[in-house]
Amino acid sequence: MRTLPMRTGVLASGRGSNLQMFIDLAQKGELPIELVAVGSDQAGAQALARARSAGIPVRVFTPADYPSPHTREESLLTWLQERQVELLLLAGYMRILGERFVQGADFPILNIHPSLLPAFPGLHAQRQALDYGVKVSGCTVHFVDEGLDSGPIIAQEAVPVLPQDTEETLSARILTVEHRLYPEAVRLLASGQLERSGRRVAERKSGSGH
């Protein structure tokens, strides 16, 4: 089991409500992580203001400042490695990380998605759920791989879809669950109880015959 907090970076594009949740839990000593880097593709993202208020180093990687997505991601990856990041959390980051970035990262990358994957990957998952007429939605914490919301699933929780739901009301109820589910998944990984395959260490040991 790990004893030192895991050096953690966060990427966010918007309000940063999940980021603030991680900041609060880390400051209270309720999550074994140390937030050491917050990056964004949006200079005006509220997440950056939250990070600065907490004394966390920030950097903006605006697409217009780079000749290609590849060079932007190279710069992002180099910065995270310089910050000695051991875990990267996506918290409302609205860009797909490229194959080279994912393969080049020497740390696990986690994301939380507002649907019960593999249903409704990509953008506007709540709107997709309402358009499809499902009765149950939810959220999923998963490892990021080279595909679109296709990495190994760590945890899921269902949220009922109500007849009067709009995209906004469903999103708000799912977000409440995200704030509970995401830190639990991070706790498993940061404490050494979860492998990058998505399997818990205890499961591997129990099935090893030893």
From TrEMBL:
Pathway: Purine metabolism; IMP biosynthesis via de novo pathway; N(2)-formyl-N(1)-(5-phospho-D-ribosyl)glycinamide from N(1)-(5-phospho-D-ribosyl)glycinamide (10-formyl THF route): step 1/1. PROSITE patterns: GART. Its EC number is 2.1.2.2. It catalyses: N(1)-(5-phospho-beta-D-ribosyl)glycinamide + (6R)-10-formyltetrahydrofolate = N(2)-formyl-N(1)-(5-phospho-beta-D-ribosyl)glycinamide + (6S)-5,6,7,8-tetrahydrofolate + H(+). One of its GO terms (cellular component) is cytoplasm. The active site is at 113 (proton donor). Residues 6-186 form the Formyl transferase N-terminal domain. InterPro entries: Formyl_transf_N, Formyl_transf_N_sf, GART, GART_AS. N(1)-(5-phospho-beta-D-ribosyl)glycinamide binds at residues 16-18. It comes from the Bacteria. Pfam families: Formyl_trans_N (PF00551). It is an enzyme of class 2 (transferase). The keyword Transferase applies. The record marks 149 as: Raises pKa of active site His. One of its GO terms (biological process) is 'de novo' IMP biosynthetic process. SUPFAM superfamilies: Formyltransferase. Catalyzes the transfer of a formyl group from 10-formyltetrahydrofolate to 5-phospho-ribosyl-glycinamide (GAR), producing 5-phospho-ribosyl-N-formylglycinamide (FGAR) and tetrahydrofolate. This is Phosphoribosylglycinamide formyltransferase. It comes from Acididesulfobacillus acetoxydans.
